[in-house]
Amino acid sequence: MYLMYSNIIDFSNNNKIIIPEWMSKKESLSLMLWAGDGIHDKITDVQRLPNYDMYLCNNGDIATINKNNDYINQQPQPRCICIIDVFDSKQIELFLQLFKERFYIINSDYYGATPRLSLKYYSTLLKSNGTAYNIEGISNASYPTIDLSNILELFAPILPKELNYLRHWTLDLIKLAFYNDLPPQTIYNDSEFEKNYSVIKSDQKIFKEKQKKLYPELDRSISFSNDSIESYWDLLTSSILCVNLDKGFRWLSHPNYEWMYNKFKDGSYIINYKERFANYLYNRILLSNINQDDFNKYLESKSNTLDNKIKALQFVIGKLSYNTNKYSLIRNIIYYNDERKLSDPEMKTYGLVIIKP
Fold first, then answer.
1. Are residues 31 and 126 in the same domain?
2. Alpha helices for the chain (secondary structure H)
């Protein structure tokens, strides 16, 4: 299948990039990320999302790109599909150069896994008073051992010793320690360990290096206690504060880890602290510059259970972690119309919106 270039700007080949004349003349453009190469329920992306000038996608299936292009050819409104690898520095730099401060709206589609553009790209591409929606990438990847590490880190000051030490070891080394009925430190220091388990030894060293960056309070946590755990939470990164409190237990279902699972489930280490953690997150959000009416409305809709309330609060904490000031952008966490939903174009979505002043 050949590629029809009438409405396509292709950054993935070495040919000279040609911008359509109508696009060069148009003062303000709208951009939909991660669309133009898909068909869902027999509807092309450009038909489902009609209000955009450009649809940016990877160099995916040529047949579906052509079908999107065919639909554009049948419409009076000129539009284009941009094919680009956003992880290719040369391609993205050229795109930024050609479309600097050209877009008044940037949105992103929600099908499949998608990348996330850096805030600095939004700062470059948006016009003054331009707005961007749905800037988060979509990932279905699950890393339960990382989630467990974050849970352990989150509650480190109040964990018993036998759980606290698990923060310092990789899953493979913990397994090996269990199988040999020895503490991980003993296994790690054994002179025969590196010879017999060089990969595990190497992974543990890498894990230690990452820990220093990801968990800066790893060694200081023991200086905090039940009475000062909120002060400890103040020091943690948003990735730890926003950990899914359920996901981390998936690998604990193995019989060898039953004792660990029971430790968590008995209510003394996490369950009894959930309400306190929710209150901490709520008060931390109140200290931020946020639309309180929309926040309270969103929280009320998600507070049917304590677990759902925590997830809602973590959602907002995650959005507050975007350092928009660094790139001269304004951060809003509000309700807005999600025009991507054809079934209900007036559907309100609560999420992050960024504006370039």
1. yes
2. 21-25, 45-48, 62-73, 89-98, 119-125, 144-154, 161-164, 171-180, 184-189, 193-196, 198-214, 229-233, 238-241, 258-265, 274-286, 292-301, 306-320
Number of structural domains the chain divides into:
2
Residue 122's CB is within 10 A of a number of other CB atoms, namely 21
- 103 DSSP β-pair partners: 29, 126
Q: By the 8 A CB rule, do 192 and 181 touch?
A: no
Nearest CA to 234 among 221, 243, 222, 250?
221
pLDDT digits (tens, 9 = 90+) for 14-56: 667 889 999 999 999 999 999 999 999 899 999 999 999 999 9
151 and 102 share a domain? Answer: no
Give the number of other Cβ atoms within 10 Å of residue 310's Cβ: 21
Are 295 and 316 within 8 A, CB to CB?
A: yes
pTM of the model: 0.85
Bridging pattern class, strands 54-57 and 29-33: parallel
Domain assignment present for 307: no
How far, in Å, CA of 283 to CA of 246, rounded?
23
- The pLDDT of residue 2 is 39
What is the domain range of residue 30? Answer: 8-135+322-355
118 and 99 within one domain: yes
Domain harbouring 42, CATH code: 3.40.50
DSSP collapsed to 3 states, 152-178: HHHCHHHCCHHHHHHHHCCHHHHHHHH
